[in-house]
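Weekend entry, working from home. Most of the wet-lab plans are on hold until the incubator is repaired, so I used the time to fold the two sequences that have been sitting in the queue since the last round of cloning. Logging both here for the record. First:
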Amino acid sequence: MVKMASTEEQDRKIVLEFCHLLEKSKQLFNGLRDLPQYGHRQWQAYFGRTFDVYTKLWKFQQQHRLVLDSKYGLKRWQIGEIASKIGQLYYHYYLRTSETNYLNEAYSFYAAIRGRAYYSRAIKEDRPDLMVKKLRYYARFIVVCLLLKKMKLVRELVIELERQIQEYTTTYEPEDQLEWSLVLEEIKGFIKAESAVAVLHADTNPIVLSHSGSGSRLSPLTTPPCERTPHMTLSLQEILIVGSACEQAKFSELTMDMFRMLQTLEREPTDAMHPMIGHPMAHGGPHDASPAASRMPYGVPGSKGYVENGDRRTMRDNPHKYLLYKPSLSQLMVFLSSGFKELPPGGALLLYMSADGCFSTTKHPQDYGYELGGLATSVKRDAVDSGLSVRGKSSAGYKEPHCLYPGDLYPYTRRPLFIIIDSDNSFVFQHIPRYFGQPLVILMSPQDIPANYQDLQHHGSLFTLFLHSPMTAMCYICNVGDVPIHHWDRCQSYVDRFVTEASRLVTRCRMDEIEQGIGYIDSSYVQFFGDDFLRTLILRFVFCDVALRLHRGFRGRHQRPRCEPPLPGPELLEHPSLAHIVLQLATALDVRGHFVEGPEGD
């Protein structure tokens, strides 16, 4: 009897400890939404505590599963809910640190929920709130799979989600039925827009390429070569990616342009980079192998640019990013200021903005900072800020308040600044002065595209597509809808040759200027050129300019991109060797007729 009483007391303590950890984890998780979204040090300690509690909770339920099953009545969906929260933690940690390895960790937990069928009996619980949790889990898992380019799995998950939504709405006839239908349509539209060009396997099934320069993250195989010089001093440290285009495919506050650009500015994750990341399945119980919570990031990075794990430190692989979907102007300025404040010595700030133009009616502008218009921002939070106007109806004598003007960026030119503007009013940003003598580069999209390419605007901007995947953009402007994998690889080799040659020409332009005083290229480009990401963007911009310059369909000056400071023409943008490679690529794609007659011997 004494032994039985002792066992019961021990079981009671296990249940109480589980309840304590569960409640503590919920409190900490709910507190995450109150943390500031900007800055670095303000939130790291809190995340560390949250990870720590979830580590203990996950291990505890594994170690005492039999007791919790019998005495607490632990259900599989409750285990799934804990795993889902851990997956969310990893995803949000990825968003805040920009480290893609944490995205893989989120995937491991989400995949385990599906593999172990933790939510399989959710509908039998007769709880609509539980079904909503299941649907939200599917939506989050789809986002992670999209970011990891697991498109086959994405399509499977969409089918499952559609079935679950149907079951949910049929069983409960909920008020949010329309909302979930819209979510489903949004996902389907995003997937359709994402696959601008299908790369076909031998069996004609579309595949997703990871390491072939097809728009994947940067890897050693896709990093453009560079002959380094002492002037290449800057590294990209802070990024602001803003998506405000109204009529563009989106999912989970990621427009297609944002989705493409954030991947362009990340490296492919590798286990070797972060030794703290282990095998996705470990510490499993006798009947339920599960993700290893021991892989959660203990501790908090002590300083910007490092990821810590005990005594081990590794340099951060990716620049830090902020992702803003249709921000108000005040939000935009706060995050821009935060990125500016966090810049270390030798660091550069990148602002990428995809937005609709906000146009001026001033006939004789004198102030290029504010009288040429700018980019429209969201009015959802700023609408009552000034009381002056709503978009499109500015009061006489006043400027549109819900607009980012070139002049708004002047203060940030005190530090090295790299700007990418994708808009139908992009060229107004070419007049930003260099008051402080710091490196400044502005890449601007075409302000117009031919009518037969207008459909692309909903699927994402052509300019951003060039910066993300030059080969895909080349196929798109030539109406090539699918390419066999072996042919894709051959064509991609031309893009690689172009990038290598353009990189050589940029370096030669600088050396010619120093030695002979010819072929001038602004020093800003040279200082940014040592950074892998910025070099990639500059060279892909060159490819975009050369390709559109040669394409018969893009004849107007507003249909080609611009940059400030201007890149040299004869020595780079109009160099015969670059034109020759683009025309060779066109021939390989069997679309030579889309391009003007090239140099002799093409």
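Second, folded right after the first finished:
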Amino acid sequence: MAAMGLVIAALAVVLVPWLWAAVLHLVWRPYAAARAFARQGVRGPPYRFFFGNSGEAKAMLAAAGGEVLDRSSHDIVPRVMPHYRAWASRHGKVFVSWSGATPTLCAGSYDMVKRVLSDKTGLYAKPDPGPTILSLLGMGLVFTEGEDWARHRRVVHPAFAMDKLKSMAGTMAACAGEVVRDWEARVATAPGGKATVEVGQQFTELTADVISHTAFGSSFRRGKEVFMAQRELQGIAFAAINSVRFPGMGYVPTKANLRRWRLERKVRGTLMDIIRERVAAAGEARGYGSDLLGLMLEANASAGAAGGKKAAAIMSMDEIIDECKTFFFAGHDTTAHLLTWAMFLLGTHPEWQHRLREEVLRECGGSAAAAAPPINGDALGKLKLVTMVLYETLRLYGAVSMIGRVAASDADLCGVKVPRGTALAIPIAMLHRDEEVWGADAGEFNPLRFRDGVGRAAVIPGALLAFSGGPRSCIGQDFAMLEAKATLALILRRFEFEVAAEYVHAPADFLTLQPLRGLPIVLKLLDP
């Protein structure tokens, strides 16, 4: 009995502190935080023990999954963020909801957004992405913080200078030209001179080709191997995000995790081989190459050779691999969907398609009756209407519907006291439809709002958040815009097109926004 008493006493010593910590985390702190927010006039759906509001959110998302929008409607929020729309309608633009026991403050005002995104102190940090997302994107510029982020950006930034990007316009156009020739062949043999093509998958393959060539140059075939592995990793990541998650599950040897680890090793091994070849070539005075990887390796080597403080800025091999993962995924996935949604909008607005075609033929040359000259970066820079349409596409159908941050310490956010550890949600899709900022036609397709530039398109400067904002804005935005312009220019001067009758307008969030069932487009060759 004495021994049993000792065992019970030992268990009590272990369990009582654990149970007390659990009560603090799951009961006392959530209710204390909710009361603190309520005293400031910030309310939201009530906290539910352990699960927070996940049950309510999943129920609304499931119900919205069966909804189909009219083609003339660009209000994607009821489909991809129905819970945020519902909570905002009840509690206002700024409200608090619960991800498990963690409060999530919806920063639904542009004043809050500007404060969060312009912060340089680390007060509003990127959330921990977890092992599944890291396997896809790596610990690159997207997730690094503080001095690590500054060090990475100093090395990566030279590769994305506009003069370097313009030199890649020919490669971008050459890859897009292969797709255009394939479409020409399909239309030429199709009944009635019209062919239906599912462009979403075509653009995914195209942008993977572009990033493989521009990032890895002569090693592009192995770059495509990385693309195939990352596509599978994206599926694994999406499944993980939409499943019930418990702490540490990303490290348990489940079937999905074992497959993820194999894919990670394949991606790392392939990238490592490419990098070693470049380093060896540089050692033989053949240079690192003029592609994105080569430019990054050259900048890294230059920092190391400079010595002193600059030498401390160099990146390790693992960090370079992570940056390759980041710009490879971001460089093809987001651009593919930008092109897809631009085709949808132009296919449903023929008057704008006609205006863009006229501009392309005027600035880039080529006509239905003559061989089209090659596309170049300077000509693409003159496509003002195309740029306006792409910005409006990003406003209505941006790749990311939400940006997340975490309060690293107690903060005062535009008068709202935010406790340390609070998640911050920036609802981009809702902000891009705010009539107080974008005007009464905020829900409509109107590229002319960008006629005076992206900074003056709304009441508030910098209201377009498709590439984030502040010092952490997307470093690859010029790359994405240049590639999208080159591709659209080639398509517009060879085809007229419309959205096929069988298209179902149901935008869906699979880490990035994309048509649920693809985008079939009816193509017709312009008169020769």
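Plan for Monday: verify the second prediction. The first strand starts at residue 95 and ends at 99.
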